[in-house]
Design goal:
This protein is 65% helix and 5% strand.
Length: 875
């Protein structure tokens, strides 16, 4: 059937290809329901490209578990590429090589990838990698996908969210209109109304019914099941084939992707090639465009393949899969994932036990962690005949992949099963290591008590096991727990024990060294900030050099946290951007979500509340995210809603539930600060809030870290929780000692407008009105109401506001800080010198100078100083 009602789509695609030829590449998602005609449209477009355009194509497989990088293997075969960097085991290097090959010589290139809703994670990662870099290439990447509400569609939305909006667009392939269906049906003398009612305009269903159906009485279409009419239509085509040709078609139906004629010949005999040609002639099969010499075939429609396969008796289907498995076992280049598919359909337990773990390991290595999970699940279902040691290894691998994808309950259950098997075997080394892993998993699930108990038991066991590498990791785990609890002494003690073991001459375990350095670097943040940064950078470098994905994600997370605590906001934002991008590309959802929460907290601090709310909401909406990963986003979103006067009860309940088993300063202090702020606003009990502040303070070993406890206690008019002058945060110390303007200036220099406004509340009426202006700009509705009440209590009324007194008295309207900067400009000081003198950043100085130039109508620093003297502002 010719294409109908697709001219606008073709025109759009052709215009995009012209733009790509001019160096403006794009990713196009050609989207529609199954059978909408996406593949036909893509094929028609690919067949009409201008001369000189290179066309490459690949297809994703509908295996139970997809083959990692399946379509890219098709493309490499078609283009006759030899991927020289693939052997390194570093997929980023491989992705870079693929992009280089696609964009070489600036040749206009159309790349078509079919059915990415079936794509493995590694394939999606490569599309994501290309999509981020495609804008200035001559490449047009067209990917077809179903738009039904499936897990695959959810993954596609996440993929597109990680590609810059300017780099991609969606083209929807709609169902055929009723008029079009009536026209097509009328040509064959069929009942168009009945066909449209049955198909809803689905192009494939319509074409099959128009070509094959002769009945005027068609049942309605269900999107969840293959309709009898469609199945009958497909099988009617098969019925015109002779017996040998049908045998070949049945054998072909066991392959969800393109297959070689040699496969069918191995199953059906040497004459199978002729049968495949017959199946192609009747419209069920088609040559696969990516086959050298036309040696590959595939079903024209996946639904047709399913109809044929489902028509086979179970024993016959199983026998065909057995033959397919035997064929691939004798081919060195065969995909392990494909063999697992055939082994599973053939119910070959021995083959599944052998091949599924290999497929899982390959998928995990390529970053396709969800595919690795499914392979492990299949292996475990058929692991009854394996030894306890082999089953324990499967559980360990499955637990690791589950934890990387945020499936923490499954991870803990699998790790517990592995531990039980190792206990039964008396394998002390593995018992200790599994206890250590359970400690980590328990922590990620929000069970601090369990994490501590498992961690201590792990070290006790490993100290008896003569296993230095595992013992070092046990020490490092205790170091991590100490660091997370704000116990720098414990973190440093055990971290340095681990480092000492790992730097001896006879042990080479860089991942353990990386883990320990990460803990120690974070723990010493307050006491030795520069050493902390250097140590964390060392940990990150080790992780990136060795491809330790989780260690790298953790190093990014902790490095960002350190910069946030030290108020180095530009550095923090940079690290978070790099870290989140890394986690997205490596499918590390747990760490990605945690860092998005950190970003939300940072944006809240910076007064960028709309961005903060969006970042936090994206994590909170993902109910599958582990409790720990959700916590920073819960804090940020509940804080914002509190300040805006919005409801946050569910968020607060989830935070409280998380804290039931968590006794860490980092978590408790954030919750205590939020409750204190709510008590200040009259939303909860003051004594309850003070109790929370005291509990958090009792867990803090550094005055600088605990300064915000003193800050919120001061807001509640409570003394006794303040840090010492010598080591507390400068802004908090200034505020507690009555130097409210100094405190506000420090918070302003740190680009923290909300905290600067709160500091001003200790000042005079002018300061209160300045605070109110800032709060209004932020949209802090609940706080604004509270401050207005405060003003009324102090002065009896709320005045109509004008400029602050100090600004109003200034002939040019300069603020006090701007006058300080102007005086230093007049002295000939550089920006760096001004920043050092006023204890502010160079960027803050730039902001002040821009404001001064605008207010004085000056074009240079010299003109500003001259105008200041003319106005009598400078002595």
């Amino acid at each position: 059937m010719r294409l109908i009602e697709r001219a606008p789509n073709l025109d759009h695609l052709q215009s995009l290809l012209r733009e790509a030829a001019n160096g403006n590449g794009r990713v196009v998602l050609l989207e529609g329901e199954a059978g909408a005609g996406k593949s036909s449209l893509a094929a028609a477009f690919a067949g009409a490209v201008p001369e000189g355009t290179r066309v490459l194509s690949g297809a994703c497989e509908n295996f139970g578990t997809a083959e990692p990088l399946g379509p890219w293997r098709d493309i490499a075969r078609q283009a006759r590429w030899t991927l020289t960097r693939a052997s390194s085991g570093n997929w980023i290097t491989l992705f870079s090589e693929v992009l280089d090959l696609l964009t070489e010589a600036l040749q206009p290139t159309l790349l078509v990838i079919e059915d990415i809703h079936w794509a493995d994670d590694a394939t999606l990662n490569l599309i994501r990698y290309i999509g981020r870099r495609i804008r200035h290439t001559c490449l047009l990447l067209v990917a077809t996908a179903r738009n039904d509400d499936t897990p695959g569609q959810t993954r596609l939305r996440r993929l597109l969210a990680d590609i810059p909006p300017a780099h991609w667009l969606r083209i929807t392939v709609p169902p055929l209109s009723k008029a079009a269906v009536l026209e097509l049906a009328d040509r064959k003398g069929l009942d168009g109304e009945a066909i449209f009612s049955a198909t809803g305009g689905n192009a494939y269903f319509v074409s099959e019914l128009v070509d094959c159906a002769g009945s005027d009485c068609l049942p309605p279409l269900s999107r969840d099941h293959l309709p009898t009419t469609i199945r009958d239509a497909v099988l009617a085509r098969a019925d015109i084939l002779d017996e040998a040709d049908r045998e070949a078609l049945w054998a072909a139906s066991t392959s969800p992707d393109a297959f070689a004629s040699e496969l069918i010949e191995a199953i059906c005999g040497s004459d199978a090639r002729a049968s495949l040609e017959a199946c192609t002639a009747c419209g069920l099969l088609m040559p696969a465009s990516n086959g050298p010499g036309g040696n590959l075939f595939m079903f024209r429609h996946e639904i047709a393949r399913q109809a044929v396969e489902q028509s086979l008796p179970p024993l016959r289907r199983r026998a065909l899969h057995e033959k397919a498995l035997a064929y691939f076992r004798n081919r060195a280049e065969a995909s392990v994932a494909r063999m697992v598919h055939h082994a599973n359909e053939a119910q070959d337990m021995s083959a599944i036990s052998e091949l599924a773990p290999k497929a899982a390991a390959e998928a995990g290595r390529l970053g396709a962690h969800r595919q690795a999970m499914r392979h492990y699940e299949l292996a475990l279902v058929h692991a009854g005949e394996l030894s306890d040691a082999k089953r324990a290894c499967l559980y360990e691998g499955y637990a690791f992949e589950c934890h990387l994808t945020g499936q923490m309950e499954r991870a803990i259950a699998a790790q517990t099963s592995a531990l039980a098997l190792y206990r039964a075997l008396g394998d002390i080394r593995h018992v200790g290591d599994n206890l250590r892993w359970l400690s980590r998993l328990s922590y990620l699930a929000g069970d601090r008590k369990g994490a501590d108990a498992f961690g201590r038991e792990a070290v006790e066991v490993l100290e008896q096991a003569a296993s230095p590498a595992e013992l070092a990791m046990g020490y490092s785990n205790l170091s991590q727990l100490g660091m997370l609890a704000g116990d720098a002494e414990t973190a440093t003690l055990y971290g340095e024990r681990a480092i000492a073991l790992m730097t001896s001459d006879d042990i080479a375990r860089p991942e353990v060294l990386c883990h320990a350095l990460n803990n120690v670097g974070t723990a010493i943040c307050w006491r030795e900030p520069e050493r902390a940064r250097q140590t964390l950078d060392q940990a990150l470098a080790i992780a990136l050099d060795h491809g330790f994905q989780e260690h790298a994600a953790r190093a990014f997370t902790n490095r960002a946290w350190v910069e946030i605590q030290l108020h180095a906001v530009d550095a923090a934002e940079n690290v978070l951007a790099r870290g989140i991008a890394y986690c997205i590309e490596h499918d590390l959802d747990t760490w990605r979500d945690y860092m998005r929460g950190e970003l939300a907290e940072l944006l809240t601090f910076l007064g960028r509340w709309e961005e903060a709310a969006a970042a936090a909401q994206a994590v909170v909406d993902n109910q599958n995210a582990p409790a720990l990963s959700r916590y920073p986003s819960l804090v940020a979103l509940a804080t914002l809603r509190t300040r805006r006067g919005e409801t946050s009860g569910e968020l607060l309940q989830e935070m409280a539930k998380f804290l039931e088993n968590t006794f860490e300063f980092q978590r408790l202090s954030a919750h205590a600060a939020l409750v204190a702020e709510r008590a200040w606003l009259g939303l909860c009990d003051r004594e309850e809030a003070l109790a929370g502040l005291r509990q958090a303070a009792s867990l803090c070993s550094d005055d600088a870290a605990g300064s915000m406890i003193g800050f919120w206690a001061h807001i509640l008019d409570e003394t006794g929780l303040a840090p010492e002058d010598s080591s507390g945060d400068a802004a908090v110390i200034a505020m507690l000692n009555g130097r409210w303007q100094e405190a506000a200036d420090i918070w302003t220099d740190r680009r923290a407008p909300y905290l600067a406004a709160l500091a001003l509340l200790d000042g005079d009426n002018d300061a209160l009105y300045r605070a109110l202006t800032t709060l209004e700009a932020l949209g802090a509705t609940a706080v604004i109401t509270h401050v207005k009440d405060l003003i009324r209590r102090r002065s009896g009324r709320l005045a109509t506001r004008g400029p602050r007194a100090s600004t109003q008295a200034n002939a040019a309207g300069l603020t006090t800080r701007e006058m300080d900067v102007l005086r230093l400009i007049d002295e000939g000081r550089s920006n760096a010198e001004i920043g050092a003198r006023l204890f502010v950043s160079a960027k803050t100085v730039d902001h002040h100078i821009s404001s001064i130039l605008a207010k004085l109508s000056a074009k240079s620093r010299g003109q500003a100083a001259a105008e200041g003297r003319r106005l009598g502002l400078l002595g």
